[in-house]
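Appendix B, record 7
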Amino acid sequence: MPGKYGSRNMQGNHRVGEDDPTAIGLLKAEHHVFRDLFDEAEAASPQRLAAIARELCMRLTVHMAIEEEILYPALKPVIGDDEVNEGIVEHQSGKCIIAELEQLDGTEELFASKVHVLGEETVHHIDEEDEDLFEDAKTAHKDGEIDLDEIGERLRARQAELYDQIATTGETGRTNEAQPDEVERA
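C-alpha cells (predicted):
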C-alpha cells in the first residue's frame, strides 16, 4: 500500500501519461521511485534506512545532474528562467543534505531526521516539477518549440553513463551541473 508520498504517483500530473514525451516520462518515472523510497524510509529499521539513504543519494545525484546538464538549459530559453532557477536552487539544498548523509553511517542520532527532511524537500520539488515545469515543457513541446523526445534520449544516455561511472569508480565523476558558488552568487 502506498504511503503518503507514493500515493501521489497515480494522481493528476504525477502520473506518467501515455502522451508524455520521452523526457517527461523518464523523469516522472524516477519521481515515482523517489516517492516510494521515501515512504519506505519512513518505516525502515536503522539498518534498512542506511541502505535506502545510500540508494536515494545515488539516484538523486544522477537525477539532478541530468536535469541540470540537459533538461534545464534546454528549457530556459523556452519557458523562461524562473522555474528553472528555482529548481537549481532546490537541487542545491538537496545536495547539501546528500553530502551530509554521505559522511554518515546511519547510526547517528540525526540520521533519520536528515533522510526525512531530504524527503520533504525532494517531494516538494518533484511535485512542483510534475505540476508546473513539466506541464509548461509539454506545452512548448506540443507547440514545436522544444523536442522533449530527443532530449529524453539524451537524458537516458547521460543517466546510463553516470550509473556506469558509479558502478566502475563509486562516483559520478565530473558533471556540468550548477556549482554551489554559482547558486550562492545568484
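Remarks on this record: The chain has six helices and no strands. The chain has a mean pLDDT of 92.
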